[in-house]
Amino acid sequence: MRIFAERLSARHPAAKADAPPALAEASFTIEPGEQVAIIGASGAGKTTLLHALACALPPAAGTVTLDGVAPWQLPRAELQRLRGQLFLAPQVPPLPPRQRVVTAVLAGRLPALGFWKSVASLFYPYDIPAAHHALTAFDLAEKIFERVDRLSGGERQRVGLARALLAPASLWLVDEPLSALDPRRAELAITTLTGQARERGVTLVTTLHQVDVALTRYQRIIGLANGKLTFDLPAKDVTREMLERLYAEHPEELGGPAPELIDPVPAKQPAVMHCR
Ligand SMILES: Nc1ncnc2c1ncn2[C@@H]1O[C@H](COP(=O)(O)OP(=O)(O)OP(=O)(O)O)[C@@H](O)[C@H]1O
Ligand SMILES: [Mg+2]
Q1: What is the pLDDT of residue 266?
Q2: What is the pTM of this model?
Q3: How much distance in Å is there from the Cα of 237 to the middle of ligand 1?
Q4: Which end of the chain is more exposed for a tag (fewer CB within 10 A), N or C?
């Protein structure tokens, strides 16, 4: 899916109608199949931007079009149909507590099902192998019949991500997918998301706090600060100075230098072994 935004402004999803926009006058184009990471300090407007692209928020000003279509000019039924082609993964997925994992994952496919099949799927998981396959990709297959409210935060986050693999979507909008994951699961999750999006030709827009992951796993980086787009560049052209400016008010969120800027780590001395 192709995204075109011109001077797009939007208010935070929870903000009052008269609040100042959390995203101001952002202009960019994202081509079908592109993979873009959005970085910036907490409060920069990343989630607001993602929700605006997901047609969950009408623009406060400016325009956004998806494959040339202006969503907010569509009749309600067509807007719903368009939303069915988008997959938004919130940082904390809203999962009904008593639902089984298998049902929660298969819910990703609901936009592609007719009404009766959707209702039936709430009672009977109609494609257990597909759910198992999606969960395996996020190392969670063993929890397939567990209740969602018995999962850890990181497991719930991975259920939310596994849904993407079932969704009939051509645009994935993923909000901080790694925030509750340990390093091994984070590596697996980002490899699965970027690999699967590439294989399917899906456009992938991901917000990330992990600048090193953004720079090494995405071709293009959009930097946001105080609701403003401060740069939009190929990852290889993002410099340490740009990152320091982007996080100037919150340097603690930037962490260490980006991997390709780090001096090679000296080889460790061999560990001394004591044999008894
Ligand atoms: N509940 C709210 N009501 C009104 N305004 C809000 C609310 N929550 C956030 N905002 C405003 O929206 C701005 C952008 O918030 P947003 O959640 O989009 O940022 P973010 O970059 O996703 O931050 P984080 O990295 O912490 O998730 C905030 O700086 C704040 O000014
Ligand atoms: Mg956010």
Answers
A1: 40
A2: 0.89
A3: 28
A4: C
